[in-house]
Amino acid sequence: MREVQARAARTVAAVLAGRSLSAELARALQARPPLDAAGRGQLQDLCYGTLRHLGGLRAQLACLLDRPVTEPRLAALLAVALYQLLHTRAAAHAIVDGAVDATALLGAARARGLVNAVLRGAQRRRPEIDAAALADDEARYSVPRWWIDRLREDWPQDWRHILE
Known about the structure:
Layout: H1 2-16, H2 21-30, H3 37-52, H4 54-64, H5 72-87, H6 92-105, H7 112-124, H8 126-135, H9 137-141, H10 145-154, H11 159-163
């Protein structure tokens, strides 16, 4: 699991930095060591799912963190693992253990404790983080903040209806 999570984190971080999802996903799928069919499918699901739910994941992570994570790959790993916890059927202990181990693959082994604490906190504080996601427009509608701001400016009476 840790290899797939680390590749997904690298891919998501690259996409958030402006790179093409299809190009980065292809690169991750071709990396060594090769993944079996299940691993390739899981990698694709983690990348697409994390990006699809990014607004909510960011709001939920903000609720769990004292301050934002500034290292892009580590922030992406937290988002990927949180996506897995909240939106997949994978075993929670395997997700957390894999994400903690994946920190070393990303060159962030010093953050093992942080990753463990955040993901365990997500399990304990699920109602609270779900409420935080519903209270944030970017999370609620799963669209970027700049788009919400633009809709508010252009259609002040209808922007919520448009997003819904």
